[in-house]
Design goal:
By secondary structure, this protein is α/β, with parallel strands linked by helices. The protein has 23 helices and 30 strands. It has 4 domains: about 140 residues, 3-Layer(aba) Sandwich (Rossmann fold); about 200 residues, 3-Layer(aba) Sandwich (Rossmann fold), CATH 3.40.50.2000; about 150 residues, Rossmann fold, CATH 3.40.50; about 190 residues, 3-Layer(aba) Sandwich (Rossmann fold), CATH 3.40.50.2000. It is globular and about 80 Å long. The two termini are about 30 Å apart.
């Protein structure tokens, strides 16, 4: 079993595809359980189809389960005689929460000896660690490929491809470049730079680049040429890009492996790279120029980009060595070519089939190892699996239900986080019980796994029953889910009657679908909170608030239409937009460009767009800073921001149909006339069991409702007070936990013995 990213452009996914392909070609019986890290795909339709086939491979017995992800996300409860984690890190150690999970696995595979040393030094049992290099699909890298035409490049060309972060050493590269050459030298530095982690576009990267050159004391117009290459290339075209360069350069401060460097070697290009961490496994003066370095503390600036690196050490590459290496490639192209040819030979040792054989040999030799089990043995052992400490609403639901269940103390509960941390766990004391539950290991096999993640995974658990928490917003559910639910799940939990009706209408047995609602924490979401300071110059006047992804499903287009019809810049009003999921489940953000245009239009009613992660403690204060929440959804499984705003005493403007009617009525909300619209039987690439059903509001009706709330504020306050009383009494996470516990009690009963053959 292979679980991990396989379809997106990340290095993890590229490595995963090479592992999977090699194992299949070496005869392994393999099932994959893909994780989706990004909506962008880097696979062809044929590759996607082959992966889909591997998702359905039957495995009556799992000899080894490999999880290919960040160490803190390892699931210690997966099926498999051997439970293996494949991962890497870029500094001299790994975070503490990685250590805990790594020591709960039977083996940890890292790509280099340097990585093994870092993991062991941080506290991972050395006996669990094995070095398995990163595989490369050599037949996708053509050493005879026609070099890519780079119209602005000339002379000796150096290529660097990297995410624009300080870890990659772009600041050192620019300093060395400006020192190694003069403006008149026949050289070009091609930067294939992107910014997944920082969210910068090419223009912002260019601005930062120019600013840094000036800070170094150089005139950007009088330095050797630099070309920013921002084209998206298919994987097979990367050979042509590498071939367009005379050398690949990567003065990184730390690498788990350094995949682009090995790919460049595979097409015969020498590599200039820091001789530490991952590259130390393949780089020496025979194949390139390893740069000297000194180990230093990760800077505050770098730690602000990736908080997990704070307090770690990594390599500071020697700028003088880099200057000399750049000059050497330019001055002696024949020697560079000789090293490039030897680099191609060395890269061949990392071919995907050769590495796959090493994997199969390792599995044949490995044995399960004892795992620490500090369980409490209090109540039935249950696992909740899904995003836990991320900032979007799906993770929030898991977090709050788990928190309520932990507080009740009726279960031996452990959490398996499948996404990662972007909340500040150090400064949020309320998260401490959840962090502890993500690190502990049950003392007994779980009797029940409650899995809430998207895309859903229908893989059977190693033990016990399976509950799938699957909110759905469009009426009939994907037809493929219906069959898989029948085979894999003992029960499906949905948060509203609206969602439940969609499942039953699609053919899922009535008795198999239970409503386990969402809720609010009345101690956190309540009237009278200190408002979050937004700035009266930024958001003056009456404040409407929208919280959610900028998606058609959320009705963001209807809201913007209605707002423009109801108000002008002359009105003392601001629409506050707080988006979520731009780097998570809600991508791409479909209305972001329109919002930006409206915000800049001085004739349009005022908009204030707030992005970024908001601390948990600030969400209630955001509601307190507003006067009215507007949420004209087309589809919601529940509508959690609506309930949270109501609990804080805000009047809410919502459709009179759909999921939110489970907790909102005419006495507690401004209900806007809406209608059910039946559409195509396909949503998001899913073929549905029937025509989709969405809720539609006319923008003119919404505009009138918003105008009413703007003008009659006393009635709005009365609505908000009534809503707060209802939500805080009857729609809490404790109430949801009671419903969940009743379902768990039934499902935790001993499973019937199989009938005799």
């Amino acid at each position: 079993m292979w679980r991990g990213p396989l379809t997106d452009p990340s290095g993890y996914a590229a490595e995963g595809r090479a592992f999977v392909r090699g194992l299949v070609e070496e005869g392994a019986r393999l099932r994959v359980d893909p994780a989706v890290w990004h909506y962008r795909e880097a696979v062809t339709p044929g590759e996607r189809e082959r992966l889909a086939d591997l998702m359905e491979t039957e495995l009556p017995f799992v000899e080894a389960s490999v999880q290919h992800t960040f160490g803190r996300l390892f699931d210690p409860y997966v099926r498999g005689a051997l439970r293996i984690g494949r991962t890497m890190f870029e500094t001299d150690r790994i975070p503490r929460d990685w250590v805990v999970r790594c020591n709960q696995m039977d083996e940890i595979w890292v790509p280099s000896a340097a990585g093994a040393e870092a993991f062991a030094g941080a506290g991972v049992d050395p006996g669990r660690i094995a070095v398995i290099p990163s595989p490369v699909e050599l037949d996708r890298l053509d050493p005879d490929a026609e070099p890519l035409a780079l119209p602005d490049a000339h002379g000796t060309v150096f290529l660097a491809a990297f995410d624009w972060t300080l870890r990659k050493g772009w600041d050192v590269l620019l300093a060395a470049w400006c020192e190694a050459f003069d403006a008149g030298d026949d050289v070009t530095l091609v930067l294939k730079a992107w910014s997944t982690s920082r969210g910068l576009d090419t223009a912002a990267i260019a601005e930062e680049l120019v600013g840094h050159v000036r800070a170094l004391g150089h005139d950007p117009a009088r330095i050797p040429d630099i070309v920013l290459f921002d084209r998206l290339l298919p994987e097979r075209r990367m050979s042509s890009l590498y071939r367009a360069a005379d050398a690949y350069v990567a003065p990184s401060r730390g690498e788990g492996w350094g995949r682009p460097a090995v790919e460049a070697m595979a097409v015969g290009r020498p590599v200039i790279a820091t001789g530490w961490s991952g590259p130390s496994a393949y780089l020496d003066p025979e194949v390139g120029w390893p740069l000297g370095y000194r180990l230093v503390e990760v800077s505050d600036a770098a730690a602000s980009e990736v908080a997990a690196l704070s307090g770690h050490r990594w390599a500071e590459p020697d700028k003088g060595d880099l200057v000399e290496a750049l000059r050497a490639v330019h001055d002696d192209p024949a020697e560079a070519a000789r090293r490039g040819e030897r680099a191609r030979e060395r890269a061949a040792s990392f071919g995907h089939r050769r590495v796959a054989r090493a994997v199969l040999e390792r599995i044949a030799e490995a044995t399960p190892r004892p795992r620490p089990r500090p369980g409490r043995d209090a109540g039935p052992p249950v696992v909740i699996e899904g995003p836990i400490l991320a900032s979007h609403s799906l993770a929030g639901v898991n977090r709050e239900l788990a928190r309520a269940l932990i507080a009740r103390g009726d279960l031996d509960l452990a959490l398996v986080d499948t996404q990662g941390v972007d909340l500040d766990v150090e400064d949020e004391p309320s998260l401490a019980p959840l962090v502890e539950a993500t690190e502990r290991l049950l003392s007994r096999p779980p009797v029940l796994t409650v899995r809430h993640r998207y895309p859903p995974s229908f893989a059977p658990p190693a033990s016990g029953r399976l509950v799938l928490v699957l909110p759905w917003e469009f009426g009939p559910v994907p037809s493929g889910w219906v069959a898989q639910i029948g085979e894999a799940a003992d029960e499906v939990w949905v948060p509203s009657r609206w969602a439940r009706e969609g499942y039953v209408a699609s053919g899922v047995p009535d008795e198999k679908v239970a409503v386990v609602p969402n809720g609010v924490d009345p101690r956190r979401f309540r009237p009278g909170l200190d408002p979050l300071p937004l700035g009266r110059d930024v958001a003056p006047g009456f404040r409407f608030l929208f919280v959610g992804g900028f998606l058609w499903r959320k009705g963001i287009d209807t809201l913007l239409d209605a707002y423009e019809r109801a108000f002008s810049r002359a009105d003392d009003v601001t629409l506050i937009l707080k988006d979520f999921g731009a780097l998570g489940p809600y991508v791409p953000q479909q209305a972001a460009a329109r919002v930006a245009r409206m915000a800049e239009d001085r004739a349009a009613p005022r908009i204030a767009h707030f992005t970024g992660t908001l601390p948990e403690s600030d969400m209630p204060r955001l509601y307190a800073a507003a006067d009215c929440l507007v949420h004209p959804y087309r589809g919601e499984g529940y509508g959690l921001p609506i309930a949270e705003a109501m609990a804080c005493g805000l009047p809410v403007v919502i459709p009179d149909l759909g999921a939110a009617r489970d907790f909102a009525d005419a006495q507690t909300a401004e209900l806007v006339p809406s209608r059910i619209v039946r559409g195509e039987a396909e949503v998001g690439g899913h073929r549905l069991a029937g025509p989709s059903e969405t809720v539609e509001i006319d923008p003119d009706d919404l505009a009138r409702a918003m105008r009413r709330r703007f003008e009659d504020r006393e009635e709005g306050r009365a609505l908000g007070a009534a809503a707060s009383a209802v939500i805080r009494a009857d729609h809490t996470w404790d109430a949801a936990a009671r419903v969940a516990l009743a379902r768990i009690a039934r499902l935790a009963e001993p499973m019937p013995a199989p009938a005799p053959a």
